[in-house]
């Protein structure tokens, strides 16, 4: 059975005080044994999160990384630096990185490989815009983004990834894919993974990343091919995020 993963993406939000608040909250609750919890915090908070969350069995993650190991790249952060902060997960290919910062398939692949080279787990994000969905291109876009990475990895590398489907039209808009819509795309992703290897498809954790909240998480997580969530705004609210984590058990 695939272990569920609930990963909170704080984006450019939060504070050291919020890290401490989450640390206290998670110290006082028992999480389901079959659920992994992660928080993807901004770079300045990684060290504090590592100290705070390791004792609470919360995985610390970063929101992006450079594709270069080191050098004169002002403002960039390497995979090795993330490892020094006890980071284990890193988002790659988030829709905001693709649209706002121009990261294309080649850039996403390079970052995936950089993460893997340092022993990090890349959480690969794929998803379509509203225009692409309305043009009935959802599967073509999503599977194309998936293939741009998986076609260029070997078998040992592929199994180390996690994939998140994030319909761009449902991020920060208040709209959420229906459970059936989300399940349909997750099932298509798993079918495509089976073309590489059935064991890869069976074992790959697929997360839903489009405005998952406390009041819709249980229904989404009940779908057979949805193994967790990449949570945005709700991950900044302790009670809401804990409720989502509990609903995954």
From TrEMBL:
Entry keyword Nucleotide-binding: no
InterPro entries for this protein: Aldolase_TIM, TIM_sf, TrioseP_Isoase_bac/euk, Triosephosphate_isomerase, Triosephosphate_isomerase_AS
Catalytic center residues: 94 (electrophile), 166 (proton acceptor)
Catalytic reactions of this protein: D-glyceraldehyde 3-phosphate = dihydroxyacetone phosphate
Pathway membership, UniProt: Carbohydrate degradation; glycolysis; D-glyceraldehyde 3-phosphate from glycerone phosphate: step 1/1; Carbohydrate biosynthesis; gluconeogenesis; Carbohydrate metabolism; erythritol degradation
GO molecular-function terms, A-Z: triose-phosphate isomerase activity
GO BP terms, alphabetized: gluconeogenesis; glyceraldehyde-3-phosphate biosynthetic process; glycerol catabolic process; glycolytic process
Pfam family, one: TIM
Leading EC class: isomerase
EC number(s) per entry: 5.3.1.1
UniProt keyword Isomerase, yes or no: yes
Origin: domain of life: Bacteria
Keywords linked to the UniProt accession: Cytoplasm, Gluconeogenesis, Glycolysis, Isomerase
Subcellular compartments: Cytoplasm
UniProt binding sites for substrate: 9-11, 172, 211, 232-233
Main location: cytoplasm
GO CC field: cytosol
Family listed: Belongs to the triosephosphate isomerase family.
Role summary: Involved in the gluconeogenesis. Catalyzes stereospecifically the conversion of dihydroxyacetone phosphate (DHAP) to D-glyceraldehyde-3-phosphate (G3P).
Entries under NCBIfam families matching the protein: tim (TIGR00419)
Record text on subunit structure and interactions: Homodimer.
Protein name per UniProt: Triosephosphate isomerase
Organism: Halomonas ventosae
Gene name for this UniProt entry: tpiA
